[in-house]
Structures are given as C-alpha cells and as structure tokens.
Amino acid sequence: MPGQPFFITTPIYYVNAAPHIGHAYSTIAADTMARWRRLWGDDVVFLTGTDEHGLKIQRAAEGEGLTPLEFADRVSQTFRDAWELLDISNTDFIRTTEPRHYLAVQTMLQRVYDAGDIELGTYEGRYCVSCEAYYTEEELVDGLCPIHLRPVELVVEENYFFRLSRFEDRLLEYYENTPDAIVPPGKRNEAIGFIKQGLRDFSVSRTSISWGVPIPWDEKHVSYVWFDALINYCTAIGYGTDVEQFNRYWPVVNHVLAKDILRFHAVYWPAMLMSAGELPPHREAIHGFLLVGGEKMSKTALNQIAPADLVADFGVDGFRYFFLADQRFGPDGDFSYEAMLARYNADLANNFGNLASRVLNMAVNYCGGVVPATRADGPLREAAAAAFTTLTVELESYNFSDGFGAVWELIGAANAYIEEQQPWARQKAGDTDAVAAVVGDCLETLRVVTLLASPLIPNAAAALWSRLGLPGRPEDARLPDAAAWGGLPAGSPLEKGTALFPRVDAP
Ligand code: ME8
C-alpha cells in the first residue's frame, strides 16, 4: 500500500555555474525532509534538476565555443555528481531541455493563453542577464542590477505578456486564507508585501533569442526562461500527460528555495497556476542566503565553495549536519571553516560520537556484548519522547536547527546521565544490575537518536543502527511506532566499531 503522497522540490539550478554550498544547502534541506517523510511511510516524490534555457546559458555556452545543449549536458552532470556525493535521495532529476518538459510548458502556455491571460505587446526594459529579469529605472541601484550590481541591457521587443496584474486580489486572498503557504512567516510577509506594491504584467516570450521552448501558437517566440523553468515542477509529475499522477502529487507539493527567487515562486508562479486552472503550490519553504566572509558567493569574487572540498574534511554526514543544524532556516548565515570545524568536533565527534563509543564500549566490556533489557520506565524515556515531539513539530515548518537541536539535547541528556550514574564505579562495586540498567537505557536512547537523526546523517545512522544489533537500516523503520521507548530487542549482539566521527584538527 503506498502511503500518503508527499512531493518535494528544490529549485532547478542554472547550468552556468558549478554546484556550490548554497545549492547544496537547499538540496540537503529538501533531502532531509524527503527522508523524514519516508520514515512516516509517505510515498515521496523528490525532484531536483537543472534549468538550461535563457540568455545567460546561451552566452555562457558561446563563451566556451559549445552549443547550449553541449554546455548544459556537461554542467548538468556536475549537479548530478554533487548530489550523488551528498547522498541526496531524489527520485527524479529534470532537465528543462527534455522533451517531456517542452510538452508540459507548451501545454501550460496554451492553457494560460486560452484563458485570455496572455496578450501581445511591446516591451522596453532594462534586463539583467544574470537574474534573467527586467527592472524598472527605480529598481536599479546607480543604474546597475540591484542583485548583481552589474550593468543591465536595454531591450526593446515584441513580446507576449502574462497579465499578472489581474491576479493581485486573488493572490492576496490566497495568502490571507492560507497562513502556512509560505514558511517561515517573515517570508510570507515579504511575499504579501510584493503583491501589495502592485503587480505589473511581465513578458513571457522572447524573439531575440532562440534557446528556449517555442511558444505553441507563435513559433517566432520562445518562452521566457522563468515561465519555462517554474513549470518543471509540474512536468515531473505528468502535467499534460498523466492526469492521475498529477492530481495525486500536485496538491501536496513543497517547494524549497532561497529568498532570491521568492518573487518568482510566491507571485508569478501561483498566478500562472491559477490562470491554468491548477492549485497554487501547497507549501513554499524559503531560506536565507549563505554568505562567505559576509559576502555573496559569486564567480567573480572567486568565493564559491564546492561541497566536495568540505566533504573531504568532514565527510558527507558532517557536511549535511553542519549546514542544517548550524544555519537557521530563514535568515542569512555566514559560512566559516572555523565554525564548521568547531561545530563538527563539539556536536559530532564529542557529543554524539562519544556517547556512541562509550555506551557500546560499556555494553561490550560490562554486559557481554549483548543488549541488556531496557527498563520500561527508564529515566531517559521522557527526554526521548520530548525530542521526538519537538523534531516532529519543528520539521513541520522546516525549522531544522531547532528540530535536530532537540535530538542533540537528548544526546546531551544521555551523556549527563552516564556522568551522574558512573557505571564504571558501579561495575567495580559489583552492582551489575545497576550497570545493565544504565547501559540498557543508554543503548535504547542511542537507538532513538539514530532513528531521529537518520534523515540528516544517513550514513552514520546506518552504521550505528547495525552496531546496535538492529536489522536492516533506519529507513526501514516507521514512525511514530519506531520512536516509542523500548524498541531495542534485549539479547541482540553489539559491535563496538570505530569512531563514527573522527575528530578533525585545524589545518
Ligand atoms: O535561480 N545560499 O537558479 P540558481 C543559499 N534557475 N542558497 C543558495 C545560494 C546561497 N548563497 N546560492 C544559491 C535559479 N542558492 C533558477 C531557479 S526554479 C524554477 C529556477 C540556492 O542556480 C537557493 O535555493 O541561481 C537559490 O534559490 C537557488 O540556489 C538559485 O539557484
């Protein structure tokens, strides 16, 4: 029996840049949520991919003497490789150059056109190629693009326009009636602010470039890259081809993205969907920007950090843990290697790693290497239940740092309990029942921690799971039952293993 449908997406990344830690952040957030929902038995579709049309890509390809498709083939593969490295469990990877996507884009364009929301006009505007967006004179900063601080280009073209201005009231009403459509709440307010400033129609076609999806009723035009890109989320679940599949997953879609593309996702996209007769996105989870040394990452500043460089030092789980536990989901955050090193050593090598190794060592040395019985009313039971509740509540709104923070509090509580109980002293005194009780409780706590942390640190969780003598992998377990106290079978053989998170020294 398939579970409840759950559909989660990352932005589709432009192929003009190699994957960096900013892209990785969104992708790990979506992956952790996908894995979390699978633990609940959901039938998860998890989509990521690459955005391959538009002027920016056309020019980048020209710069390298390649066709846009050759160029996109090459860079798209680097995203696949990065996600494989980071153990991303996506079920699909979409490229906007695929035939299935052309079909979906043309279907939606035609529906919006037939609804009377696309009209021909002349556009004169200032275009930032890096944003693939137009700006008004007032929006420019010293005549430059407000995001990239780069020169904009004056473009005069005959374009088709999407009548976004018609959707102001409907969008406001939608956000007023659907308070969790955008999380965190500050980002929802920002979206409402954009709409209240008034919405201008935007052009959805280009005649000056050819690298895009042809407009079905007028093939001189290709679709504006953003109109094309947003539709990827629908393409992947069969928009225009498989109504049943589309109707199953679309009402539960979750888009994960950063604030830079909030306007496209929170204003343009729901309006396009409304026009095409579809539901607006169920949920958008918007995070801030990762900065490096307080600066935006950019090719020109040469400060883009490749995930592989950090994975080499901290491992995949160390990488995944740091970004989701340390960075609050919503505000901007500054990346520093020193902070990553400190956090890795404190939370993973010390707190978690030490708990695992000291408990397994005691179990092997004092309890014959098998799991002693867990007490039904063990003193850590409440703490374990609280961690599960907090994680469940916080992940509802993508608050990973507080959610997993509660799991790390449980680890801290288990370490404190061991200090307080001094099982080594009791062992010396020959009080083996007390030792077995403490070790049994701690092993059970480790089981709960491993289960709850598994969406974030899947590799360490799988390793510890088998050392605890549990069959299969943590992802085979099902919540909420698996989180209930007392799931570790007494008598299972344990294994000490090597350090889960070896300490990392400053370079
Ligand atoms: O905008 N910090 O693609 P893109 C955090 N193709 N997240 C970051 C980041 C940073 N410094 N830099 C990038 C596009 N991201 C479009 C999207 S979707 C239909 C089309 C992440 O390659 C974040 O998710 O510029 C941001 O929204 C996205 O990458 C932008 O990726």
Oligomer: single chain
The geometry reads as elongated
Helix content: 40-55%
CATH superfamily of the largest domain: HUPs
Radius of gyration: 26 Å
**Biggest beta sheet summary:** 6 strands, parallel
The proportion of residues in beta strands is 15-25%
What gap, in angstroms, lies between the N and C termini? Answer: 51 Å
Describe this protein with a few key phrases.
507 residues, Rossmann fold, 6-stranded parallel sheet, 4-stranded antiparallel sheet, 17 helices, binds ligand ME8
Describe the structure.
The chain is of the alpha/beta class. The chain has 2 domains: 5-287, Rossmann fold (3-Layer(aba) Sandwich), CATH 3.40.50.620; 337-483, Isoleucyl-tRNA Synthetase, Domain 1 (Orthogonal Bundle). It has helices at 21-39, 55-63, 68-85, 99-114, 168-177, 185-196, 225-230, 232-235, 243-249, 262-276, 307-326, 337-366, 381-396, 400-421, 423-428, 432-453, 458-467; strands at residues 5-14, 43-51, 92-95, 118-128, 133-135, 153-162, 182-183, 202-203, 205-206, 214-215, 218-223, 253-258, 283-287, 290-292, 333-335. The strands form 4 sheets. The protein has a 6-stranded parallel beta sheet, sandwiched between helices. A 4-stranded antiparallel beta sheet has the order 5-4-6-8. Strand 4 (118-128) and strand 5 form a beta hairpin. Helix 6 (185-196) crosses helix 10 and helix 16 (432-453) runs antiparallel to helix 17. The longest helix has 30 residues, at 337-366. It is elongated and about 90 Å long. The two termini are 51 Å apart. The mean pLDDT is 95. The protein binds ligand ME8.
